[in-house]
From TrEMBL:
Residues 61-165 form the Serine aminopeptidase S33 domain. One of its GO terms (molecular function) is hydrolase activity. It comes from Desulfamplus magnetovallimortis. This is Hydrolase (Alpha/beta superfamily protein). It holds the Pfam family Hydrolase_4. Keywords: Hydrolase. The lineage of its organism: Bacteria, Pseudomonadati, Thermodesulfobacteriota, Desulfobacteria, Desulfobacterales.
Amino acid sequence: MTRVQKADYAILDNPRVSMNLFHPRKDIYGTSNDNNLLIPVDDGVDIGACFHMTENKNSPSILFFHGNGEIVSDYDDLGNLYNRMGINFMVVDYRGYGRSSGEPKVSSMMHDCHVILKFAKKFLSEKGYEGSLTVMGRSLGSASALELASTESSHSDFQHLIIESGFAFASPLLMILGIDPSSIGFREDKGFSQVDKISCWKGPALIIHAEHDHIIPFSDGEALFRASGGEKKELVKIPGANHNDIFMRGMDIYLEAIKNLLKS
């Protein structure tokens, strides 16, 4: 497995980018789950998480990085649904989101996901869970998931990769967010490098994307699918759905694809 050359995210840490890319909000009501956690990722900085766990120690687990306008407690109902399917669902925030401290930036997001993965693996080991581990990223969270998928140790760290509504190319996304990439000196090959990163992943991969995604077009999902480096990969199109209603419109297809992947 080839590691993508370490990126310099200084350009993407531009305040204009952070202001438009991240939409943090605090967790006012909290989550009802008992497994609320704070994950230390840096000096004085903790990331909020909620690990929805089953009683079956052989259950597979999903480590989930959510979208830019979401927080951990938004996934309480979905966590319960995954548990009823026999899957542990471990959802984490970003800096400044939910119960997390700090301020969100691209460079910190790319740093923190590595610490979070190590924490999740230690948690599973200490609690005696022996099932497979899957890393999943939705929308903005695809950047964290693909950062992890591109590392040398990823094959031993987790077994499956799921990208839902993920972006392949950052420049069009920046344009949608109202930022001219050239105005901040951004070049596609110096940014997230999503396509290059997924090409490093040789394990089973599932790409889920809405047919009519109005923020990240379906063609991005196709590009990630084509570039994925493993032999076992699947692209699932959710008919009639857009970026925000993909799960509501395609829940059965969505969950069936995930169950099939975790069985592999």
